[in-house]
Amino acid sequence: MENHSLTVEHRDDTASKMGMWLFIFTELLLFGGLFIVYSVYRSKYPDDFHIAAHQLNTFIGTINTIILLVSSMTVAMSVTAIKTGKKSLALTLIGITIFFAFLFLVNKYFEWGLKFEHHLYPGSELMLTLKRGELLFFGLYFFMTGLHAFHIIVGMIFLITIFFKVKSSEINADNNVLLENGGLYWHLVDLIWIFLFPLLYLIS
Amino acid sequence: MELNDIDKSFLRNGSKYKGILSWLTSTDHKRIGLMYFYAVSFFFIAGGLLGGLMRLELLKPGQDVMTAQTYNAVFTVHGVIMIFLVVIPGLAAIFGNIVLPIMIGARDVAFPRLNLFSFYIYVIGAIFALLSQFVGNGAPDTGWTFYAPYSTDTNTNVVAAVFAAFVLGFSSILTGLNFIVTIHRMRAPGMTWFKMPLFPWSLYATAWIQLLATPIVGITLLMIIAERWFKIGFFDPNLGGDPILFQHLFWIYSHPAVYIMILPAMGVVTEIIPTFTKRRIYGYKAIAFSSIAIAAVGYLVWGHHMYTAGMSTTARWFFSLLTFIVAIPSAIKVFNWIATMYKGSISLEPPFYFTLAFIFNFMIGGLTGLVLGSLATDIHVHDTAFVVAHFHYIIFGGMGFAFLAALHYWFPKIYGRMYNKKLANLSCLLIFVGFTLLYFPQFIIGMEGMPRRYFDYVPEFQWGHVLSFFGAIILFIGFIVMIVNLYKSIRKGELAGNNPWGGKTLEWTIASPPTVENFEEIPVITNGPYEYK
Q1: Nearest CA to CA, how far is B467 from chain A (Å)?
Q2: N or C, where is chain B less crowded by C-beta within 10 Å?
Q3: pTM attached to this predicted model
């Protein structure tokens, strides 16, 4: 009975990219729910949000913003590199992107660590003594940056996979839609941060 | 030909593995659809039996077979199973998977491996849903809506149930994503958008809702978990939060979710009616666009679940207005279905009977929806059995009957064999009578004030509950007849042939059951889908 091939070989880069774009829509809406909560409580407690935002370290936030912006650039450059057949350049650029992602997480670790040292974390005793708006602000801060950090980790794993596929030439000048999709995903992670940064750090 | 078609079909040829593994590792859209079918059927029976337990408890006032706490758990679990495990994946994941690629002339969906992955996410979600019943401090008792602040306070096992719903949401999102790309990229040459059959159109609209609404409930459910574990306070008034905000976020998804359930049902009916009346569908474009309109407007009506929850008058009349507007495209479809039948040569086969029952139930369910959508009357019947009746008329009377219609319509295509039509008609009659007897009295006692989700009630309402109980029994018998009939026919039914109903869409041009690749050669489309003379 085996007169048919059982796997249907079929490659459609436009479809793959369309799939990625649709997935990005869902990610935006996932964060969208949090942005709704943010806007409701910020309009309800504008002063508390203002005070609480003072506690955030704008310096680390700015550094991390720069890190993500530059990493977005390097991943975009790697796509151009692979398309023009420069494999080792592409590998370097993807490597740099992964390194930046790691750097972002290190900064985040110290930033969060400091908050925990000051007993500013959801459920802490200090937190319950704060004004309600401040408490909600920190709840949102940890939830939003936490979810974002999770996306950074997912993006890193995605990029590491891509790195090895470029290395083995599975991704090459003719077949590079996976790298492009990885780049798109990484831009999404960057984009969400571009909104989180001012909304959380710069409202003080 | 004798049996050859079945031996050559996807039912016998899967992946490189043998036995059950050849199913579990298959990326064939038809096999994945069938795996969903078996899983969903299992959960439907489980959820249905829980519903039966509730009817038994309500047969008499006072405590009879279970405690109030158990009753709360039973209606929660019934809701979670039926909504997240049965109705949402029901038509889209089962029949969408099985027939969508064939109807648009493709060999598979755009991302077959992602499709299998979605199925496994569904299985993982289902496992969490089952775990929530058996581990921790007892089954969740919040109702399927998980309303805060109770869901953030109760000691029962809410986290597992909420997480199950979150995971199942991802399965639904990825299926939707897959279908959108499939419809955009994989249509056969010549099949323009307006030569595409209408079931794919309705799946297309559904897929967009799955994609754009599900993430909102996903994040909301995560907030519930964070609220329970870390006291972030979003929905806790003591910490400055607002429980009403939870209701908004929840219904932003969960109202469109109703359209995830009903839109594919409308699509199925739109396929069946031309086939059994041998007429071209009346108002093709109106039906196609009304699907999109329902998806678009349906996104903006969530507030009608919250008229009594505390909202400004402006917001309330706005949501009420939008609710009335969303009824228009639904009505357009009904008129078009009826107009298609007019002067058609109608053959009364089982799928058509189920379709007629669908239209009848859907009219009642839809019109009572307007009673709930208008501000003044909703205040009176809010949170009563009237809502339960309305909801079941749409979901069971609408989506459920359309599902059964789809099952009887495509059964010969999927298994290559025909069922006993007389038994099928009998099961349709029993299910319809049982259904009506079960849910119609709930409208009346709801109007008279019987609250929903109550374990006990005053004796005035007993007559309604007694009728409902007997309805449930007839319904149960109807399902037994149907299951026995279909199960026997899978093995022993007469060979159906490629086109037992005289349908015109592409799935009827290929073998029954289809081969792994569906088409020997991808067809070139020159005509619209329903070109009867």
Answers
A1: 43
A2: C
A3: 0.94
